[in-house]
Specification:
By secondary structure, the chain is an all-alpha fold. It has one domain (about 1-30). The protein has one helix at about 1-30.
Amino acid sequence: TRLKALQTQQQLGMQSLSIANSASGNVLSLFRS
């Protein structure tokens, strides 16, 4: 069960990272235009 919890935590972390990356990319593109 501990392994599963760690895996889900890693997945959530990766998802939040990708979301933050896409959000910052959108902001940057807004500033560029």
